[in-house]
UniProtKB/TrEMBL annotation:
It holds the Pfam family His_kinase. The keyword Ubl conjugation does not apply. Residues 157-234 form the Signal transduction histidine kinase internal region domain. Keywords: Kinase, Membrane, Transferase, Transmembrane, Transmembrane helix. This is Sensor histidine kinase. The chain crosses the membrane at residues 12-29, 35-57, 69-95, 115-137. Coiled coil: none annotated. Its EC number is 2.7.13.3. InterPro entries: Bact_2-comp_sensor_kinase, Sig_transdc_His_kin_internal. It comes from Mariniflexile ostreae. The keyword Transmembrane helix applies. The lineage of its organism: Bacteria, Pseudomonadati, Bacteroidota, Flavobacteriia, Flavobacteriales. One of its GO terms (molecular function) is protein histidine kinase activity.
Amino acid sequence: MKGFKVRKNTIHHILFWLIYFGLNTFRWGRYFDDYAYSFNSNVVEFSIHIILVYFNLYFLLPRLIPNKYLIYIFTLLTVVLAMTFVRIIFTYEFITTDVFKEAERPGISVFDFNYVLAAYIGQLYVIGFTTAIKITIDYVKNLQKTKDLENQSLENELSMLKSQLQPHFFFNTLNNLYSLTLEKSNKAPETVIKLSELMSYVIYQGSKKEVPLHDEIKYIQNYIDLVLLRFGNRVNVLFSITGVMENHYISPLLLLPFIENSFKHGTDCNLDKLSLYVDIQIFKNKLIFKTRNKKTNNYIDSNAKGIGLKNTKRRLGLLFGDDYNLIINNTPHNYTVTLKIPLNGNNKMSHY
């Protein structure tokens, strides 16, 4: 892969010089109406150009910029002046004794000040032009590299948050199963099956960036069924869905912590009959998710310092930036969550 990249860069450099040489030869050949002279003089001139350009880009710049810029400027100007004299001498000895043809003035000496200055500026122009190209390319590469590193960092953080969420969920579920086994409940086998389905979803779907919305909602329904196996008739869950689920996608395991939190609030309070409301609406590539449950005045939010809800808020920020809305109302008698998020890959992490 590295060798291929080197060959590709080499081809780009060769094409650049061939195109530049061709255009310059055509330009001066047309100006003098002498393409043979233009070609021969450009052979000499471009030989000097290439030496100076690569000396500047790959020797001076890496060693002297940005810490020794004064030394860099002095060295560059001195080397360019020396190579300018080399170019003038080579042109005079091997190409033409007609000095400074562009000036259209006869009798100019080979080291005429204006001639040397024009040649000197010509060398600096090429160096400045190629340096600007090099800096631009490096800047674009660094931007992409920075973006890749940022994306990888966010991807790693999302994976870490998911890995924290899953043990948190299974810990709560296994506690439920443990309670049923202590009671020797005939609901325990059904609980194991439900738990198996949930684990399968987490393992095979939880690692994906997005899953069909239908699968995520089915996962939530399985979770609710599993919790109801423990609490039975003491808890009444109203779960409503409006809108079309087909062809919509969502980040997996994103909504579950709110469901968990709703059950935590609702089932830990001292009420004989509990009602939990879960509402999902799909409208114009937006998902509106709501949960609501009652709670007592003396309820202590044991989940406030937990990782589930905290991690979910962090995931929402990583996935959607500012393109989501989360409202949590925690009153003495009710706990309500309203979440609005975009669907179908409209999140900044879906482009990885």
